[in-house]
Amino acid sequence: MRSVIVIGGGISGLAAAWQLRGRADVTVLESDPRIGGKLRTSSVAGIPVDEGAESIMALRPEAVELAQEVGLGADLCDPSSAPTTVWTHSALRPMPRGHVMGIPTEPRTLAGTGLLSDEGLERLCREEELPATPLTGDVSVAGYLAERIGQEAVDHLVEPMLGGVYAGRADRLSLRSSMPRLAAVAEQGGSIIAALRRVRAAGAPKASPVQGVRGGTGRLPMAVAEASGARILTSTRARDLQRTPAGKWRVLAVTGDGPLVMEADAVILALPAYAAGELLRGHAPAADEELSAIVHASTAVVTMAFNRAQAPVLPDGNGFLVPAVDGHTIKAASFLSNKWGWLAESSPDMFVLRASIGRAGEEAQLDAPDRHLIRTAVSELHLAAGRMGEPVAARVTRWTRGLPQYGVGHADRVSRIRESVGKLPGVELCGASYEGVGVAACVATGRAAARRLAE
Asked: Which of 31, 212, 348, 449 could share a disulfide with 237, CB 3.0–4.6 Å?
């Protein structure tokens, strides 16, 4: 059997290790004391709650299929049914169903919702009348959509969605990389609303676009690691990557017990772009330069538990998104006890929710102490959803440089990175920095990297 070292024990690296099971001797090196990356579950007030991603996309199959393969199929569950809600103009305003990343396929259903002004709604409704030529090249989301649906619709409908997924800004994110479905429509020319309406009408209906895992999505990486049969070394940070005269790859790492040197036929770098670039600097300087140019946003998640008996008001629905133009600190809130039936059943006396803070370019907000972030989150939740009283327990999880930003030209950058790394035999890249930040996309990149090595 061949030997492979996977550097990075997040879901991307673990998916790669799982893909190689039985075909290679695999060792996974993880710098943290625990595996899983941004899939992590821990307790608040004795209740298991995810600190990072709380769900996996079901619209694409990779993560759901992997969960089923590693024995979690029976624990996959849909969230409760509720419309997307936006906190804007001093109220929670549900979006009508039938939107694609905030773009409504039936614009007139926005009438009376308060999401857009009369002028903004009329501008949106005129989109189907506007001439359009097929889009070529790459542009920012706002650079394209503001011309099609108007700036107000971008600010209040699309930007909140992008903030929730990427913690990014519509005027900086690549249309092609951050909204590929919409980019494919734009490349055909014509009305995007009419095209999205046809796509929705032709697609098979799904019960839910996302699914969760009973007990938390943090169970997924643990199950994948166990099923992979790989050797897992935590608290082990790779510091250098060397090529041996025999053509193997030597990894120099640091552990709590001192230095560690390992050799393998191949390596998979399942790391953030900047960390992968550091290891590749002496072997593929062009790749290092491109990887280092990928900007990352930092975020924080404030998780709170309220005693149901003591809370004056508890919110309905699954949560809400917040447009950046409204000037609030939190960018999204998820009412976990409403959203996930398993959580409500396991803690009937408590109500758990979480708020997300941090957008690209707003990292200074995260310099505040934990208690200040908790106080800000509670105050804004009271404004948005009613006074719930004070939490009986709260936790702040910080994800420093946690979300890569897919700037204009990102897909071309990734092509150049892969071309440069492709000249290094036995080296592969995977993770959120390339073709998608969601769990499903990360699983797909990990498995694809493993397949390329196996072939």
From this structure: 31
Q: What whole-number distance in Å separates Cα of residue 283 and Cα of residue 423?
A: 10
Mean per-residue pLDDT pooled into runs of 10, the chain (455 residues): 94 98 97 97 96 93 97 97 93 91 93 96 96 91 96 97 92 96 91 90 72 97 98 98 97 96 98 98 97 97 97 95 96 97 95 96 93 98 96 97 97 98 97 96 98 92
Choices 3.40.50.150, 3.50.4.10, 1.10.3110.10, 1.10.10.10: CATH for 93-202? 1.10.3110.10
| Domain 2-38+60-77+216-294+406-454 architecture | 3-Layer(bba) Sandwich (3.50)
Contact 195, 188 (CB under 8 A): yes
- Whole-angstrom distance, CA of residue 252 vs CA of residue 236: 10
Q: Is residue 356 a contact partner of residue 282, using CB atoms and an 8 Å limit?
A: no
The model's pLDDT over 414-454, given as tens digits with 9 standing for 90+, comes to: 999 999 999 999 999 999 999 999 999 999 999 999 999 98
Domain ranges for the chain: 2-38+60-77+216-294+406-454, 93-202, 296-404
Q: What is d(CA 37, CA 50) in angstroms, rounded to the nearest whole number?
A: 12
How long a stretch of residues is the chain? 455
> In the block, which residue shows the tokens 């090196």?
29
**Which of 89, 46, 114, 96 is CA-nearest to residue 303?**
46
CA gyration radius for the chain?
23
Pick from 317, 343, 335, 316: nearest CA to 77: 343
CA distance 10 to 271: 8
Residues 443, 10: contact at Cβ < 8 Å? Answer: no
Q: Is 416 exposed, middle or buried (0-12, 13-18, 19+ CB in 10 A)?
A: middle
